[in-house]
Design brief:
The protein is α+β, with helices and mostly antiparallel strands and about 325 residues long. It has two domains: about 190 residues, Multidrug efflux transporter AcrB transmembrane fold, CATH 1.20.1640.10; about 80 residues, Alpha-Beta Plaits (2-Layer Sandwich), CATH 3.30.70.3400. It is built from ten helices and six strands, in the order H-E-H-E-H-E-E-H-E-H-H-E-H-H-H-H. The chain has a four-stranded antiparallel β-sheet with strand order 3-4-2-5. Strands 1-6 form a two-stranded parallel ribbon. The longest helix has about 35 residues.
């Protein structure tokens, strides 16, 4: 029985032919994502802004405006109400009360009493309270963790390869994170600690894919000293294409199942990782690789000082 191959052995795709088109598209989307995120902001969860989150499920579909009117009548501050997984489940976000934990408990009890009185059969699924101090610390720590992870990765690759590879990896990671944040800003999906965990996961995955390609490029630079950079990168990408496709498709299939059948509580995390895997696979080919050309990497960058490999020939 022959094994299934997603990528034939003799595959020779000219990836670098479209590098300038990919650059223009990536620049437009990345700049748009950053601008839209800065203009509209992210829909930050209670983890980052503090306050209360009440998740409730009703016995039948309800009108959002009617629910909003009844919550506002409690005079607990401006409430944000969003559908959560279906027409019968909603998420009610309230600003943090001024009286501390005791006032937060009182506010939650008032909302609970209103829901059960106004909507017979309503069920309170969860009540989460985060103070302003804790939410500020979480936001700072989350941003710092993401920034340090990206910086540490760039420094590691710089020492592991050359400075061009470190810059390429950092630009690639920035590209991936910016696009995902732009998606969340555009869709107004909530950004909480689960999404930060997803971003760190994506950074690690994108790095793994990029390092595999970079390592093959470095090997081929040492092996085929007279080959021009564009054919060299095309050769390296084709040699690692099978591994890239198998890994990405395996993860995407698992995430697709989670998107369809997984619990609502991890939906944002699943969406972020699914989108990140797709973007990371694209960026490892069309961002991290051609940027080596734009940064001036030459075929003689990894010449060995000994005579080893002097008789090696170029592939046909």
């Amino acid at each position: 029985m022959r094994l299934l191959k997603l990528v034939p052995d003799n595959t020779n795709l000219d990836f670098m032919r479209w590098r300038n088109v990919a650059l223009v598209i990536s620049l437009i989307v990345t700049i748009s994502s950053i601008a839209f995120t800065a203009y509209r902001g992210l829909n930050l969860g209670v983890d980052f802004v503090g306050g209360q989150m009440i998740r409730t499920t009703f016995s039948q579909a309800v009108e959002v405006e009617q629910l909003r009117t009844r919550v506002d009548a409690l005079q607990l501050g401006e409430a944000s109400i969003q559908e959560f997984g279906g027409p019968k489940s909603y998420q009610i976000r309230l600003p943090k009360p001024a009286g501390g934990e005791a006032a937060a408990n009182i506010a939650a009890d008032r909302v609970r009493a209103m829901l059960t009185a106004s909507y017979p059969g309503a069920r309170i699924d969860a009540v989460e309270t985060v103070s302003g101090k804790v939410s500020g610390e979480l936001a700072t720590d989350g941003a710092m963790a993401l920034g340090l992870a990206m910086l540490g990765i760039a420094i590691y690759i710089w020492f592991r390869f050359e400075w061009q590879f470190g810059v390429g990896a950092l630009v690639t990671l920035f590209h991936d994170v910016a696009m995902i944040l732009g998606f969340f800003a555009f869709t107004r999906r909530q950004v909480d600690l689960n999404v930060v965990a997803a971003l760190l996961t994506i950074v690690g995955y994108s790095l793994n894919d990029t390092v595999v390609i970079y390592d093959r490029i470095r090997e081929n630079l040492r092996k085929y000293r007279r080959m021009a950079m564009i054919p060299m990168i095309n050769l390296s990408l084709n040699e690692t294409l099978s591994r890239t496709m198998v890994t990405s498709l395996s993860v995407l299939i698992a995430l697709a199942v989670l998107l369809l059948l997984g619990p609502e509580v991890i939906l944002n995390l699943t969406i972020a990782i699914f989108l990140g895997i797709f973007i990371g696979t694209y960026s490892s080919i069309y961002i991290s690789s051609p940027i080596l050309i734009w940064l001036g990497l030459k075929p003689d960058s990894f010449l060995r000082t000994d005579a080893e490999g002097a008789g090696e020939v170029q592939p046909a």
